[in-house]
Amino acid sequence: MYSALNALVLALPLTVSAETVVGVYMYHRHGDRTPKALKPANLTDLGYQQVYQSGEYYRSRYVDSSADVKINGLSSNIVKQSQIDVSAPSDDVLQNSAMGFLQGLYPPVGSTSATETLRNGTTITAPLNGYQLIPIGSTSTGASSEDSAWLQSTSDCGNSEVSSNNYFASSDYTSLLSSTEDFYQDLMPVVNGTFDSDYVTFKNAYVVWDLVNVAEIHNSSINSSDLLTNETLFQLRTLADKHEWGLAYNESDDLRAMAGMQLAGQIVSYLNSTITGKGAGKFGVQFGAYATFMSFFGLAQLPAANSDFRAVVDYASSMVFELFTPSDDVSSSNFPGSDDLYVRFLFHNGTATNASEPVEYPLFGRSNSTISWSDFQSEMTKFAVSTTEQWCTKCGNTTGTCAAYADSSSSGSSGASSKSSSGGGSGISTAVSGVIGAMVTLAVVLGLEALIMLVAGLRLVRKPSTKSVSGGAGAAGAASEGAEKSAA
């Protein structure tokens, strides 16, 4: 039972003057980039600016000596590597976004501060006006995320691929695939420089929208731009949101949200280390793709707070978990116990600035946006994946690193759900879905492929040919690999 003080804290608004933030974990999307359909995707100057501005905002919130929500004991000017942990997948767009963000978070310290005198009396000034070098670790999954059009293609989690493939057998998907056929074909004059007509369907809703969206931001001219009315653009975005939500999360089959499970494990692990280390680790930052946001949103029941959490987040979006105590007397020797710590969740769609700050939302379907650490940890561990053994068992992977857990993994995967995505429809069995995933990577022999297509009523969508085009929504290049990872 909560004490009267606990009850009061849980009812408080975003900040109070007496509280102290002792640790923060942030998950951040990359900035504006070139389209997925035209590989390799690259961070644009606009994207660089977006993440840099986000870094500046979070500096003003957590790092600067006059910050309103200063993280207790965090170095304000010269970074202390032990206090900050930054990671991103091995992906150019995400790694570069992380670097741009850090330049805003910890800017160059100037030639006066960035100097040292050697034994022989020589004075050395750091290059680039005291530019601060902050290492960026590499996460184990998500490599080349921005060159892939499909959520699970970089997860390496077998059962998650099976689950996401089940979406393509759901009535929600098949209904939209059929009802939007004419809508997408009407857009061919806009995108025919990049895609063949058989690619432009709801099956590839995100990649098609992404190409048009990038053109709307960057291209001075677009082929048949008169077709891109506000209503059409809204419909394209809405369909892309529905498509990606169906791949990222399913209430009756949480294996689809493995990306969110892994993130939850990382969040709990980092904040717990802040507690056990008495504030030694203060600021964890991870850059990743939009699909992980969506998976986590579903697991944490955030659509109950706002239906917009079912949509693809904008470039440079960020979500933050602040660990704090209702006291202003905190030090390593007087660090609060877990019973005196609380968590709040904040999210901002797009680049956060002082003029447009993150908003606080309640997690787990609750009414209060402040939650005790013990309750937060308990709710998160219901779905968090924190160890390699957990991941291998849930994913059903038995080779490589997972070979050591092969027995538990095989037993855990034997009961994997074969339910379809929400909306009904006959689900694809684990075995059949596994073959679908193999088909699209060309690892299945043609005879077995034909058998599955006959039994399950499936068809393979041909990957579009590479085309060149002068101007338009898709300015030259090969189509994305979205079709390679899905069956319709």
Automatic annotation (TrEMBL):
The chain crosses the membrane at residues 435-458. Keywords: Membrane, Signal, Transmembrane, Transmembrane helix. Residues 1-18 form the signal peptide. It holds the Pfam family His_Phos_2. Residues 465-488 are annotated as: Disordered. The keyword Transmembrane helix applies. Belongs to the histidine acid phosphatase family. This is Histidine phosphatase superfamily. It comes from Phyllosticta citribraziliensis.
